[in-house]
Amino acid sequence: MEFFTTREDYIKGFTKILAESDREALVLEAYLDKQLDRLDILLSHISKHNFFEVLPEILGIDSRLVLLIEMIKFDDFSSESIIEIIEKDYVSYVKELCGYDLKTKTKHSLIFNIL
To answer: pLDDT truncated to tens, each residue of the chain (115 aa)?
Structure first.
């Protein structure tokens, strides 16, 4: 795992993987850009007053991006299908990654509070 402490390094990780994939990526690049644009808006407006409203959406963007780089490996899916799957599954991605099934109640934690 690569640690990052800047927005640029965070984004570079996703863009690098997408660029290195063998997939025709125009649709996925547009999806990535849309997510990053929304992330920039959220980051520019985050404060101690809205942190608990904004963080769940930031976590949702992160889940979408992680799913994107996971799914580009599967040639069985079109770019459009990948985006559809991501939009359907991103909310439960962290929950499943932590070993919970979809029916299990999670701990009271920010990490599971995803929009």
So the answer is: 678 899 999 999 999 999 888 777 789 999 999 999 999 999 999 999 999 999 999 999 999 999 999 999 888 999 999 999 999 999 989 888 888 887 888 888 888 888 8
Q: Global pTM? A: 0.90
Q: What is the DSSP letter of 108?
A: S
Task: Count other Cβ atoms within 10 Å, centred on residue 75.
Answer: 9
Q: What ranges in 1-115 are assigned the alpha helix state H?
A: 7-20, 26-45, 51-71, 79-97
Report the distance separating Cα 101 and Cα 52, nearest Å. Answer: 25
